[in-house]
Design goal:
- The chain contains nine helices and nine strands.
- The protein has 282 residues and is an alpha/beta fold.
- It has two domains: 174 residues, HUPs (Rossmann fold, 3-Layer(aba) Sandwich); 90 residues, Pantoate--beta-alanine Ligase, Chain: A,domain 2 (2-Layer Sandwich), CATH 3.30.1300.10.
- It binds adenosine monophosphate (AMP).
Amino acid sequence: MQVLHTVEELRAWSRRLRCKGEGLIGLVPTMGALHEGHASLIRAAAQQCAGRVAVSIFVNPTQFGPNEDFSRYPRTFDADREIAARAGATVIFAPNVEEMYPAGAGTFVDVEGLSERLDGKSRPGHFRGVATVVAKLLIAAEPDLAFFGQKDAAQVAVLQKLVADLRLGTRLVVCPIVRKPDGLAMSSRNVYLSAEERRQALVLSRAIRQVERLVSGGERQSSALIEAARGVLAEEPMVRVDYVELVDWATLLPVTTAGPGTLLALAAWVGSTRLIDNAIIG
Ligand code: AMP
């Protein structure tokens, strides 16, 4: 499988296909350390854009805070290449930092409002970095479809607004969260967890299931649902909650009553690893 390193190569690849005619062009943006969650996105892309799927692998420095894990983020390019190929990628786009942020680059994309909510509140600047790099990727590849995971639900909301506000010609396709059989949402950061922390981390999906059970039973009050989630999370005293919120998925603003399009989102520290999980519960 071909590996492209420059924006110009990616643009040329996409334009060549566009000239050839009909089929859709798909992009799957990732930071590498690919797992089954990423593979599910690539498979979805391959289904809708057969032979025209670019997977980008770029650990984007601007979305990491100064004390976050940018330098130790797992980088597993050879394995990623295998996984991407098997899942149906056509090319990999693997630029270096200078390619995405040429010397002196001072243009950033700020999705106002949404970028300060949920993870944006605890990770100032995070969504500015995400929006900037995704805008660069969409402008370079000009895909018809770009595939993202519901795993990063707040990111999806930010990017939907980015695409709408900038009138970009790409449609975002949101794929379901892939979990381990025991419920843990797959994440590149799970490799940081010790065996004991991995066990503790199951409390996140347990909290979500508890809320889902209450909603099935008719409970709709956000305060009661959040309290129930916090109650389950408290079963693991070593797990430090960052946030538990019920929000409208489009605006990321809190709702008082759960309804269609309500997102239950939570983030917690397990040891020194920050994990997120969510469910649509309306
Ligand atoms: P990342 O490499 O963590 O930036 O993720 C790249 C894309 O894969 C994002 O759109 C994520 O939401 C998606 N993704 C990550 N983990 C999962 C998962 N467990 N299930 C589905 N999609 C995922």
